[in-house]
Amino acid sequence: MVWLILLLLVIVVLGFFYFAMLSGLFSGAPFIPTGRQDIARIFVQIMVRPGEVFYELGSGDGRVVRAAARAEARAIGIEQSGVLIWWSRLLTRGVGVPSGHLAARFIHASFFKVDLSAADTVFCYLLPTLMERLKSKLERELKPGARVISYAFKMPGWTPVQRLSLSRRNLPAYVYEMSKERIIET
Fold first, then answer.
1. pLDDT (tens digit, 9 = 90+) per residue, 133-175?
2. Whole-number Å distance between alpha carbons of 23 and 19
3. Residue 127 φ/ψ, nearest 5 degrees
4. C-alpha 99 chain-centroid distance
5. Which residues contact 136 (CB under 8 A, 6 or more apart)?
6. Which residues pair with 57 in a beta bridge?
């Protein structure tokens, strides 16, 4: 009887995750986790600074946000899936990263509806169709000197200031920096 309850619980939890992944496919931001080794390499190469305001757009399970919090940034994940927000918060408590205003926090919303003007760094791993829509929001809201890190896909029409080669999967990360003209061209 206990094993049947556990089996049903596992099926329900997996159902929630599959629903979250499928709904993400239709929104242009499917849940595809960034590799842990790639996260570590990105943070070493771009040097997220203590106190910096760090946003991840489409934060999934929160692993990038937790890495930013460990680097002592004020890390904020924005995720549209309520299931993934719940999971992110649970995992954040489980690894000893305090969940709160000054460490790691997660906002259940569309990132198109969240003001990003305080961001020093924005991280995204989004499909190209969504990147095209996101570009104008970033150009409008980000301050000069803010960085945008796009994992796997280039921001259409922008020239990166840095291209990071990361893992055996050969997925790059592109680093962009906002200027007074909105984006530094190289």
1. 999 999 999 999 999 999 889 999 999 999 987 666 678 899 9
2. 6
3. -70, 150
4. 16
5. none
6. 78, 124
Q: What is the pLDDT of residue 12?
A: 67
Are the CB atoms for 54 and 107 separated by under 8 Å?
A: no
Q: Coil, strand, or helix at residue 13?
A: helix
Q: Would you say 153 and 143 are in contact if contact means Cβ atoms under 8 Å apart?
A: no
Residue 40 CA to chain centroid, in angstroms?
Answer: 14
Q: Are 61 and 88 in contact (CB under 8 A)?
A: yes
Residue 158: CB atoms within 10 A of its CB come to 21
Task: Give the span between the Cα atoms of 132 and 122, in whole angstroms.
Answer: 15
Token couple for 53: 């305001």
Q: Which amino acid is at 125?
A: Y
CATH architecture of the domain covering 2-177: 3-Layer(aba) Sandwich (3.40)
- In 3D, which of 131, 137, 133 has the Cα closest to residue 149? 131
